[in-house]
Amino acid sequence: MDPAEYLYSKDHKWILIEGDVGTVGLTDYARRELGSIEHIELPEAEDTVEVGEPFGALVSDRAIAEVFSPVTGMITEVNPRLAEQPDLINESPYKEGWLVKIRIERPDELKDLFHLEKYQEYVQV
Question: Each residue of 100-109: pLDDT tens digit?
Answer without folding.
Answer: 999 999 999 9
